[in-house]
Amino acid sequence: MLLIGFNTNLLWMGSMLLLSFLSVPALNAAVGGYFMACVPQDMSGRANSLITFMALAALPLAPLATGLGLEWVGMGPTLIFFGALVSLAAILAWLSPQVRGIPRPEHWVAAASPAPLERASSDGSQKSPAPASPTE
């Protein structure tokens, strides 16, 4: 993705975008599968709504930032900046212990099974597991 800004030829940019987007379906499937395995079924609607809200709330920022970049520094530097931003995010995710600690798909269900929630008393000691809500 970082290479896209070094040449503003349409064929070059198209080939760089093609290469960068080839992994998107596999990544979406992996993230979606892990999400489905880890989020309790009765919370999946709320969790999915939160993820969708956060993604859609950020959508207007991309055209704004891109327009400002194109106006102030031009196409090449703007593409290099956003390519570097995407590369930095990928590197930070790859180096993250939380991301690297995600188990293989066959172990997702076991890794997603949390211990029963326990309520903490006012003195810090643990009490019995929290009672089930009346709607369960």
Write up this protein.
- This protein has 136 residues and is mainly α.
- Helix content is 62%, strand content 5%.
- A two-stranded antiparallel ribbon has the order 1-2.
- It is elongated and about 50 Å long.
Task: Note the total helix count.
Answer: 7
| Main sheet makeup | 2 strands, antiparallel
Structural class: mainly alpha
End-to-end C-alpha gap: 47 Å
Mean pLDDT: 80
Which range best describes the helical content: under 10%, 10-25%, 25-40%, 40-55%, 55-70% or over 70%? 55-70%
Radius of gyration: 21 Å
Give the helices and strands as they follow along the chain.
HHHHHHHEE
Strand content: 5-15%
Low-confidence stretches: none
**Order of strands across the main sheet:** 1-2
Shape, per Cα inertia axes: elongated
Number of strands: 2
Q: What key phrases describe this protein's structure?
A:
136 residues, mainly alpha, two-stranded antiparallel sheet, 7 helices, 5% strand
List the helices and strands and how they pair.
Blueprint: H1 10-21, H2 24-38, H3 44-58, H4 61-72, H5 75-95, H6 97-100, H7 108-112, E1 118-120, E2 126-129
Antiparallel strand pairs: 1-2
Outline of the structure:
By secondary structure, this protein is mainly alpha-helical. It has helices spanning about 10-20, 25-40, 45-60, 60-70, 75-95, 95-100, 110; strands spanning about 120, 125-130.
